[in-house]
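Duplicate of earlier report; Protein ALP1-like input re-posted below.
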Amino acid sequence: KPDRNIWLDIAEGYREQWQFPNCLGAIDGKHVLMQAPPKNGSRFHNYKGTFSIILLACVDANYKFVLVDIGAEGHNSDGGVFKNSIFGQSLEKGTLDLPCPVEIPGTTKMLPFLFYWG
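Output:
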């Protein structure tokens, strides 16, 4: 699990490479198609009519995986997978060791760190 210094390095990468300050990662989910397991009911059946497991990932500015959750059943939504993932639960509980908001240069306004959901 990344610590505060790693999160700050990731944010610096987004600022330098993409001019996106305070971004700690881009999150997205993808369905990975699979053959239907025997006697699975509709657990792996997704909204596109195929069978899948879900890969949920957070990447840094260079597309390197920072956090992943693999194996949720295809009938779940990305949001549902995120909410039930260790990543989502840690974010909700405030246990990800995220950096504190920082002052926007030239102002007295504070800008929190964020994740982009793609």
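The helical segments are 4-18, 78-84, 86-93.

Merging into the original ticket.
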